[in-house]
Amino acid sequence: MSRIGIAGAGAFGTALAIALGLAGRNVTLWARDRAHVAEMQARRENRARLPGCALPDVVTVTGQAADLSGVDAVLLAVPMQTLSDFLATHRGALDGAPLVACSKGVDLVTMRGPTAIIADICPASIPAVLTGPSFAADIARGLPTALTLACADAEAGKRLQQLLSAPNLRLYRSADTIGAELGGALKNVVAIACGIVIGAGLGDSARAALMTRGFAEMQRLALAFGAETETLSGLSGLGDMVLTCTSAQSRNFRFGLSLGRTEEFDRTITVEGAATAKAVAMLARERGIDMPITTMVAAVIDEKCTIAEATEALLARPLKEE
After folding, report:
1. Domain 3-175 is classified in which CATH homologous superfamily?
2. Of 187, 278, 304, 320, which residue is the catalytic one?
3. 218 confidence band (pLDDT: 50, 70, 90)
4. Domains 3-175 and 183-316 share a fold
5. Domain range summary for the chain, segments of one domain joined by +
6. Is the pLDDT of residue 124 over 80?
7. Residues above pLDDT 90, as percent of the chain
8. Which residues are annotated as a binding site for NADPH?
9. Right CATH number for 183-316 from 3.30.70.2660, 1.10.1040.10, 2.40.30.10, 2.40.30.110?
10. What's the longest Cα–Cα distance across the chain?
């Protein structure tokens, strides 16, 4: 039986463990917090993140990263801003296995995506990306979705596609890792912007316009870094953006809602798009790439401008052809 390791027992990591376990894989699910490990071992569910979703018997919960060694692949479901430290700390257990990034974002320190970080820290591993329209609760409940599995190594990509597919997870293969990871990262910024629009009472028409222009920004940056247009138009770009910009299940959208409503947001919840907005705004300035929506989102998050000022600045931009 195939063995899969999952690093990170948040909602998404746990949901993948459930789906792959029900598909007949042996899964080792690693969690950082010892108390969290003990509770999941005892109760066979992740009450903090996915209450009511039982872990299959073939899922082993552990707090020892060494238990991830020797598996057929490791899914990295840790937050993007902690990925580098996690890989460096546990390189001995991980280096050599295919490493599949499930986090979405751009590292604030290095300005790189997950595959570049994996290649640098774990050079013996084949890096890949699993991304697309997927809420953890839907996956854990067995609801269907389709995802992009991007791997530059074509043969390794085929093996991973077979290994990680499940009855409710249809995986489409791509060799464009840059496009896949940037699509997954940048759509979170657009989702925050859409949350701000709805939270501030600017309406659904404004949200639709913002999604469209936000998608144009996504393409602009991704193509500048060598991504393929088709990738951004697929599941990892447009598909994921539509989901996160229109549902309150999205943490990034909810974060934007709280900004638009000037409400407090639970800071214990990981919002990948907040750090990504800041990183991408800096990248855009350095490369001379026009990304006004991303720039405004970063400014609002850093409290450098109000939502009213950001709206006025976007609407006052010079008129041009679409």
Report:
1. NAD(P)-binding Rossmann-like Domain (3.40.50.720)
2. 187
3. very high
4. no
5. 3-175, 183-316
6. yes
7. 96
8. 12, 32, 104, 136, 251, 272
9. 1.10.1040.10
10. 61
Angstrom CA distances, 76 to 8, 94, 115, 297, 318, stand at 7, 10, 11, 27, 43
pTM: 0.95
**Helix, strand, or coil here: 29?**
strand
Sheet with 59-62: list strands edge to edge.
59-62, 26-30, 3-7, 73-76, 99-101, 127-131, 145-150, 169-174
Give the Cα-Cα-Cα angle 144, 147, 149 (nearest 5 degrees): 145
Matching residue, tokens 């890792």: 177
Q: Which two tokens stand for residue 171?
A: 């995986």
Q: Which residues of 212-240 are buried (b: 16+ CB within 10 A; e: fewer)?
A: ebbbebbbbbbbeeebbeebbebbbbbbb
Active site residue 304: no
What is the arithmetic mean of pLDDT over 84-111?
96
Work out the burial of residue 9: count CB atoms within 10 Å of its CB; fewer than 13 is exposed, 13-18 middle, 19 or more buried.
buried
Q: Which residues are annotated as a binding site?
A: 8-13, 32, 104, 132, 134, 136, 187, 240, 250-252, 272
Mean pLDDT in the chain?
Answer: 96
When pLDDT is cut at 50, 70 and 90, the band that residue 184 belongs to is very high
Nearest to 197 by CA among 208, 187, 206, 188: 206
